[in-house]
From TrEMBL:
Residues 8-133 form the Glycosyltransferase 2-like domain. This is Glycosyltransferase 2-like domain-containing protein. GO terms for molecular function: hexosyltransferase activity. Pfam families: Glycos_transf_2 (PF00535). InterPro entries: Glyco_trans_2-like, Nucleotide-diphossugar_trans. PANTHER family: GLYCOSYLTRANSFERASE, UDP-GLCNAC:BETAGAL BETA-1,3-N-ACETYLGLUCOSAMINYLTRANSFERASE-LIKE PROTEIN 1.
Length: 297
């Protein structure tokens, strides 16, 4: 008989050799020992693989390597498919879990069999994992959703069957794939919040998102929110107001013009027509987009 492990953790890694040891050790320190850790190294150029290899004598830890860099969406999707457990959690390779994270989330899933997605509270830490501030996760307000109230951050856990049903992470949503993933899981089944810090998010000095790149990423977020709005029309699931989606669309038009991304421009422009959105009222969002500024709602 194929004995399935009770909880899977997936970890995509690219050049986090300095910190990945902390991440793996936080899994080894779990109070619940019936887990598997699947790591995908995305063609790192640092010492990541040698750091990971030191842990491979534990049969619960498996390493998969991409010959060329394929990005986090490919890495996480491939890992989800490989998982042997019903429940999966995502840990970034520079972050850590608290020692009771797996046991707490496993209990939460067993107690809530109809849910597709369960998340927890988290905290921010400096590069040495020293606490800096509490995270912003919270329960979804009554009659609301994560689309309307962005409150689901980490520790992100979900059923493998639900992830497969929604088609895994969407390549078209690069830079907003995690939020798009949550929106779709929320549309599939109820979600649950565990009000306990289970995840420590490490803030590094360097960031890959600045200026135009950050605005482009926010444009994809607007696209993800627009697509969720379309899916939720004429359903009982809490949706964006026409004012909110109009702001997202006008911002997307601005950034797509700035970046000469005509495919995205067409999608946003058609939404103006198809959903009777107010262009003039939301001109401020367009101006921020065309200037490459961030959109704050």
């Amino acid at each position: 008989m194929n004995v399935k492990t009770k909880f899977s953790i997936i970890m995509a890694n690219y050049n986090n050799g300095e910190y990945i040891g902390d991440a793996v050790n936080s899994i080894l320190s779990q109070t619940h020992a019936d887990w598997e850790l699947l790591i995908c190294d995305d063609a790192s150029t640092d010492n990541s693989v040698s750091k990971i290899s030191k842990f491979l004598n534990d049969p619960r830890i498996k390493l998969f390597r991409n010959k060329v860099n394929k990005g986090i969406i490919h890495s996480e999707n491939s890992l989800i498919k490989q998982c042997r457990s019903k429940y999966i959690g995502i840990l970034d390779s520079d972050d850590v879990l608290t020692s009771d994270a797996v046991s707490t989330m496993l209990d939460a899933h067993i107690s809530n069999p109809d849910t597709a997605f369960i998340y927890s509270q988290y905290e921010f830490c400096d590069s040495n994992l020293k606490f800096t501030s509490k995270g912003s996760s919270r329960a979804v307000p009554l009659n609301s959703s994560t689309l309307v109230d962005d409150c689901a951050v980490a520790f992100r856990t979900f059923k493998k069957s639900a992830a497969l049903e929604i088609g895994l992470l969407d390549y078209a949503m690069k830079y907003a794939e995690d939020k798009d993933f949550i929106y779709k899981l929320e549309e599939l089944a109820p979600i649950v919040f565990v009000d306990k810090v289970l995840y420590k998010y490490r803030i590094q000095d360097e960031s890959s998102s600045h200026g135009d790149n950050e605005a482009r990423a926010r444009m994809i977020m607007s696209y993800a929110r627009l697509e969720a709005y379309k899916r939720r029309l004429n359903t009982p699931i809490s949706n964006l107001s026409k004012t909110s989606v109009g702001i997202e669309v006008m911002y997307g038009i601005g950034v797509s013009l700035r970046k000469l991304n005509f495919a995205q421009f067409k999608i946003f422009s058609l939404a103006l027509r198809d959903y009777d959105l107010n262009m003039v009222k939301n001109m401020g969002a367009f101006v921020r987009g065309i200037r490459g500024k961030m959109l704050w709602l």
